[in-house]
Here is the input.
Amino acid sequence: MSDYVDMVFSYQRCNGKVADRGKDKVMVINNRGKALWKVSSPTLLQSSTFTKQVVSGDRLKKWLSYLLDNLYVTAGGALKVQRVGMPMGTSCSPILVNLLLFMFEFMAVKKIIANPPNSRRVHVFDIKFKDLTKQQRKERIVIQEKLLQLSCCVRYMDDLFNPLMPEVNFRNFLAGAYPKWLEVGDPAQRGKIVDFLAMSIWYDHGTRRWESKLYDKRVGLQKMGLQLNKFPHPDSKLSRSCKYGIITSQLNRFMHCCSKTGHFLEAACVLYGSYLSKGYERPIIDEHCDQFIRRSWHKHNLRLRQGCIGKDFARHYVSGPAVPWSRHHASR
Here is the structure.
């Protein structure tokens, strides 16, 4: 983590306005979470208030060190201090885990680029392609292909998604990237369709596109008899906008996770039926669904029937042909 903080602040020192390059910089964060980089000064470092926080590299490392040295949990009625592993239960835990694993992966990729193959002093990336020998061109293409495959891998905390690289090569890379105390387990799934981050992802050879749809592991648990309460009761003390606003947020999630219109409508119909079964008012449900479609119809080429508020979400909307993924879809 200390290396990551040094890398970020060193980058800012070398970039930005020409007049400010080479000068130490700090982050100034307001109470809304917006951060700006400014040139450091003794006066600025002492100007932190309840609505503004000035963060330098040394200050951030001290905070991280204090957090890691003061982790306490209650187990069996006893208060114990955590000495091993990343902090659990804090709001910054996912960010710290991602940054820690990112640094291991970053150093491994950096080593692939920096170390010349066959112990030569000059790397193939330091020579213009036209000046490379036939053997050097082959080596460069192999390295570029490996880097391309790695660039398509996705990780969120301890979940890894590898769509292109052969499993043996990927495991060898991870073994060299992560320390020995961080073991990489066997793949949870293999095959043409893989579930990752509440999505089922696959490659459609017919359309030559990566496709995705919703995946909810709780559906299988519900079929086994587990009772789950996904939405608040209509008579709860939550405000109307909070209870019905879930419809809009869920439809947005469906839109970003589903690459095909049919999958989006299928998930939307299930949501519509769930709200009806819990006793919510149909006209208000229709209002939120119609409002979402009017704002986002172009994302999935949905068409609202003329002035029709039917009895079922599936009857409200007619789906047009599936549209290709946008860049936003492709990056998820």
Observations:
- The mean pLDDT is 80.
- The longest strand covers residues 25-30.
- The radius of gyration is 26 Å.
